[in-house]
Each structure stands twice: as structure tokens, then as C-alpha cells.
Specification:
The chain has 12 helices and 10 strands. It is of the alpha/beta class. The strands form 2 sheets. An 8-stranded parallel beta sheet has the order 6-5-4-3-2-1-8-7. Keywords: Lyase, Magnesium, Metal-binding.
Length: 281
């Protein structure tokens, strides 16, 4: 039986025009699957891919696992049938305030059938990045992710050791804005170097330390790495549970941990965040 946390650690991209891969993804270990109706599918084939996706979604055993990535230029055609087919959420590529407004209007028009449809926006352009403070306050947004290849290309930044610090600063601002708005921790960008799993583990660890709570994958082999890095150890869970218990026993007043260190609200908040990443049946 799969073990999943309260919010997915891993999101595996699967091309929407490859129905032969849907069942494989369903049998796999990814916490969530994103059926892609954007970059992975040629424009001419997106209507057929949408038909495949919307035929598949009502048949799945775990509907909470299934998301769909949409192109904002085809929201009018794609979002309603995807939401009505039972997708847990949609990932809006190249997100903007206008796209969020349009998505909100479409979902409101569907009514109760789409009331649980979550929306994640991908930051993929300089214009979107500049509007982060406004985007994160949109009532329809669950959190953000980063389409880093597109974002860096739009900014004219070449990824290298010399630019690593600047890229981390860009990533950190996405984390800061999501946290300031009370959103879920953002979803870390994927890596196209899917055979370099040691490197992928290192970057996943770095992104987690920067404040990202999940990561996307383009290959099933990356999923196990994401889970290994993002799943708390038994020791971490025990320590977090002790912190929360001592804080609650003290009536949420002054408390100390087993080593005599002060437990304040920030420590408790971090402990609860650790516990929220605990997989359950």
C-alpha cells in the first residue's frame, strides 16, 4: 500500500497524449501525477490529448493523486472538461493574474462539481515574477511552482556555478511570497537530467532547505529520490512530536525540550511542519 503525506512530496509529469503511460503512473509511487496538456503535447494534438485525459480521470482509483497541467491560452477549452472529469487540481503554466481570474470564473461557473479543484501556478516569466506579491493573494491559488528553464531564459540568466547564488535568490523570493500569503510551501522545479540521480538528490535537499515542500519529476526514477529526501526520519518525527507534546502540556506557554532548550512558537511551527510530512496509509 502506498504511503502519502498530507500534501504530495512528488508530482510526476506524464504527457497527456501518452495514455499507454497513465496506468504505469497509477501503479507507480508518485504521490501525485500531472497529466500534461501543455509543453509535452504538440498544439495540434492537444484536443485529442484532452479527450484521452478526460476519459481516464473518471476511472482512477485515487482521484486525489491526479492533476492536469494546462496552457493559459486554452483555458476556455480545457479547464471545464478537466475539472468536471474529477482532477484534484490543475497546474497553470505561465501563470498570470488574468489566467487566475479566468480559471476562477470557469470553476465558479461549474459550481459544486469543481469546488475542490486546486490551482497551482507556475512562475515562468519575468512578468510573472515581478507580480509575485499580487499573485500569491489570489483566492484561487493554492501555491506556486517554478518553471525554471523558461524563467531563466526569459531573464537571460545562464545556469552555472557563477550564477547559482542569483538563481537561489530568485527561488527564495517565491518561497518568501508564498509564506507571507499563508500558502502551501511552493513546489520545486524539476530537473531534465533525470539520469543524474545523485545530483538530483543534492538539488532536492538544497531546495528543501530553501523552503520548498515538494518537487516535480519527469521520470519515475526521480520519485524515489524526492521521497527519500523529503520524508522525515523516525528520529525527526519523534523529536517533532515531543516538541508539540511539551508545548501543549504547558498550555501553549513556556516549555523546554528534552535537552532543556526553550520551545517557542517558531520551534513548534517547524515541528508541526515536520509532522505534516509524515506519510500515512
Amino acid at each position: 500500500m502506498r504511503h502519502v503525506p498530507a500534501f504530495p512530496r512528488s508530482f510526476l509529469y506524464v504527457p497527456g497524449d501518452r495514455p499507454d503511460l497513465f496506468a504505469k503512473a497509477q501503479a507507480g509511487d508518485a504521490d501525485a501525477v500531472i497529466l500534461d496538456l501543455e509543453d509535452a503535447v504538440p498544439v495540434a494534438g492537444r484536443a485529442a490529448a484532452r479527450a484521452e485525459v478526460t476519459a481516464w480521470l473518471p476511472t482512477v482509483e485515487e482521484p486525489d493523486r491526479w492533476w492536469v497541467r494546462l496552457d493559459p491560452t486554452s483555458l476556455a477549452e480545457d479547464l471545464r472538461p478537466v475539472a468536471e472529469s474529477g482532477a484534484a487540481g490543475v497546474v497553470l503554466a505561465k501563470v498570470s493574474l488574468a489566467a487566475l481570474d479566468q480559471a476562477d470564473a470557469i470553476l465558479r461557473g461549474i459550481g459544486a462539481a469543481a469546488s475542490g479543484t486546486s490551482v497551482v501556478g507556475l512562475v515562468e516569466s519575468a512578468a510573472t515574477y515581478a507580480a509575485l506579491a499580487q499573485l500569491v493573494r489570489h483566492p484561487r491559488l493554492l501555491t506556486l511552482g517554478i518553471g525554471e528553464v523558461d524563467l531563466l531564459a526569459d531573464l537571460g540568466i545562464v545556469a552555472s556555478e557563477r550564477t547559482a547564488e542569483a538563481i537561489d535568490a530568485l527561488r527564495t523570493q517565491v518561497v518568501v511570497q508564498c509564506a507571507a500569503a499563508g500558502l502551501r510551501a511552493p513546489i520545486a522545479p524539476t530537473s531534465t537530467r533525470f539520469r543524474e540521480l545523485d545530483e538530483f538528490a543534492d538539488t532536492t535537499r538544497l531546495l528543501h532547505e530553501l523552503g520548498f515542500g515538494s518537487r516535480t519529476a519527469i521520470h519515475p526514477g526521480q520519485v524515489a529520490v524526492i521521497h527519500r529526501v523529503l520524508t522525515p526520519t523516525a528520529e525527526e518525527l519523534a523529536s517533532a512530536a515531543e516538541v508539540v507534546a511539551r508545548f501543549e502540556e504547558a498550555g501553549q506557554g513556556v516549555a523546554v525540550d528534552g535537552e532543556g532548550r526553550l520551545i517557542d512558537a517558531a520551534v513548534v511551527r517547524q515541528a508541526r511542519r515536520t509532522l505534516s510530512r509524515q506519510p500515512s496509509h
